[in-house]
Design goal:
Two copies of one chain form a homodimer. Chain A is α+β, with helices and mostly antiparallel strands. Chain A has helices at 5-21, 27-31, 40-52, 69-79, 87-96, 104-119, 172-185, 196-205, 212-225, 249-265, 320-339; strands spanning 56-57, 66-67, 123-129, 135-144, 147-154, 158-165, 232-234, 277-280, 293-302, 306-315. Chain A contains eleven helices and ten strands. In chain A, helix 6 packs antiparallel against helix 11 (320-339). The interface between A and B is large, with 67 and 67 residues. The structure holds a DNA duplex (30 and 30 nucleotides).
DNA sequence: TATTGGCACTCAGAGAGATGGAGTGCTAAG
DNA sequence: CTTAGCACTCCATCTCTCTGAGTGCCAATA
């Protein structure tokens, strides 16, 4: 069953209005729109039909209409008009994008904070591998008597480190030897290619520092097997700003908790399946606690076999168009950002008249 | 003006009851307590007096009494009885304490999550330096053409890393040279001791990789100047479980936001000034939005010139005794945890029959 | 046949009393 | 100094009513 143009127009208008007011939309409000040329009675007829089709809902008999999940879905897939960011908006997005250069993980969490702030909704970020991870470089640093810091660089410019305490004394030279062995025999291997025999071999040739070897390998395997980095969820409290949670702290808490759990335990669900952007509308969500909650997910590029995902979480009644536009802007520019190694666009001033050659 | 023993007993009882019920406490409820041997009328007289002293408050004429901030303060300073953790509680605390070994920062944030979970309240953690920071080790790793990873180890076993992208080509050997120069001339120096001349000297002797030097030094200075690590705040939503926020999402959001801001902008305020534990009761708080919010802060030990702080945030009506007990337990055991380099108490099973020598 | 104005009907939400009960302060007796 | 008794206060809850926004339907219209 196809929708008439007018029905589409009405559905779109209802979503648009409801999204910004959070109040059921009446026929009069639609009729009053400048580009609608029929009377409220006609609208009422059309609305009745749309309701029958399951695209609209009525909170109660004498209330206006509210989009149903199916209505939102149709809106997103077919009716949504590209939201054009205003000059002010791009300006503040640009300002926000001046990430302070930092460690990879911190950048990711900062991106989340940023997105959350700019959309005024909770947001999360995850980094995922696009292909099998391999170790790129090992480093062992003496941190104190019996304590060693292992620095591990993986493909995708991810750096992990771990403090290892050992009751065995090792010298700088021992560590250097072990590091060299690791760097020659353990780099550029995927998790599967790292076998027990290999470990044996390394342990044998590692000299006095060999007790370290199994610890290092364990950690390495653990890191290699991680398909994605931590999920950084921030700005949960912004959900409370939404009218649907005005006086339902209990419900909000439930949503928060489910969100937290879902994000860590059900990671694949928070990654867009296909295409750069994906929408999860209300009941399409995994957990039933999130049935009134929607998620907009967008991919962005981080160099070297890594891929980032930004997600924005909000009530099903959320401004999909605007949020998509903002996320799109982020996605476009974050890639560039990460490529540049997180250096702010205007290079930082250097002390004492040093010049930063470009 | 001194309180009589009975007055102390009454005040203590009121705090204890109010803390667990969140309802104003009436004279009858006190009189009904097993270890109270006078009638409700007597209690009423005493309560009137305590109210006049400013230790109790009355929400309205015909309501029971509620402790005033001053009342809480007195309770905390003099009346609070040590809460003894039950066997069940210590058991679950012990289970929780099995931190997965990880990077320092992640451990800190995990500790926060843990405390938040065990107290069912928002919690934060910060690591602070006890003395001037110095760099301990520099490492430069080629990550790709024109991109280098700088790994910096500071005193206190803190490891920082940064991805640097440079339009200048440098070889492995160049990096090794620069790293060597940095390691000889820049380690064990405090931020003040790193001068412009030193930078000049390093740049001159650094060979082809010298353009990197100012970037490295900038980053180093930045790290050295950080008196404390990031503040990890988690479990904000748990505040919503408290009856005071049952239907006041707006207020909760305000508290959240202020909390967030306060924690990052007003760091000294979140660190205990003296003694291992400190309480910030309601109006003693910095921001007026937090006037109904209290904080319990506790120090704990992390080796090597670093010191951790755990804070628990809750409504002024919170179970100070219980929370102090739990925090105390954490503080005691976390020190041990960190000393051991974050290795779980039962050493992890090693693959292929490898033995972990103790 | 599609659209429109008109009209009766519905129902959530706000406001106004009315009611009950928990708790107080005070007084007078023990 | 303590206690029982009593009048009083005031919040919380409930019910009731009223209002107005919005609908659905019908008959008139183009």
């Amino acid at each position: 069953m196809e929708l008439s143009d007018r029905q589409k127009q009405i559905l779109r208008a209802i979503v648009d209005i409801y999204v910004s007011t959070a109040e059921p939309v009446g026929s009069k409000a639609i009729a009053a729109l400048p580009d609608v040329s029929c009377s409220s009675a006609t609208i009422r007829n059309e609305m009745a039909e749309l309701t029958q089709m399951g695209l609209l809902e009525q909170p109660h008999t004498s209330a206006g209409r509210v989009p149903s999940p199916a209505g939102y879905r149709l809106y997103i897939d077919e009716l949504m008009q590209d939201y054009r960011l205003s000059l002010d908006e791009t300006k503040s997005l640009n300002e926000a994008l001046e990430l302070k250069s930092q460690e990879f993980d911190k950048m990711m969490s900062q991106v989340g904070k940023l997105v959350s702030k700019m959309t005024n909704l909770p947001a999360y970020t995850v980094a995922t591998r696009r292909n099998e991870a391999v170790a790129k470089h090992f480093d062992l640093i003496q941190a104190g008597p019996g304590s060693i810091i292992l620095v591990l660089m993986l493909s995708g410019d991810v750096v992990k480190n771990k403090l290892v305490k050992l009751p065995v004394r090792v010298t700088e030279a021992d560590l250097k030897l072990l590091a060299a062995v690791l760097n020659t025999s353990l780099t550029d291997l995927t998790a599967e290619e790292i076998t027990g025999e290999l470990l044996d071999k390394i342990t044998r040739s590692a000299g006095p520092a060999s007790p370290l070897a199994p610890l290092v390998m364990d950690f390495t395997l653990e890191c290699l097997r991680q398909q994605h980095g931590d999920v950084h969820l921030t700005g949960q409290m912004r959900l409370l700003g939404q009218p649907e949670y005005k006086d339902a702290a209990g419900k909000a808490q439930e949503v928060f908790e489910t969100l937290d759990e879902e994000l860590i335990s059900n990671l694949p669900a928070v990654l867009p399946k296909d295409g750069p952007v994906q929408f999860l509308v209300g009941p399409e969500n995994v957990a039933k606690e999130l049935k009134d909650t929607s998620v907009v997910m967008m991919r962005f590029d981080i160099g070297e076999g890594m891929q980032g995902t930004i997600g924005v979480v909000g009530p099903t009644r959320m401004d999909y168009a605007k949020i998509t536009a903002k996320l799109g802007y982020f996605a476009e520019n974050l890639g560039r950002m990460f490529q540049k190694g997180g250096q702010p666009t205007p290079p930082p001033a250097l002390p004492d008249g040093m010049k930063n050659e470009e």
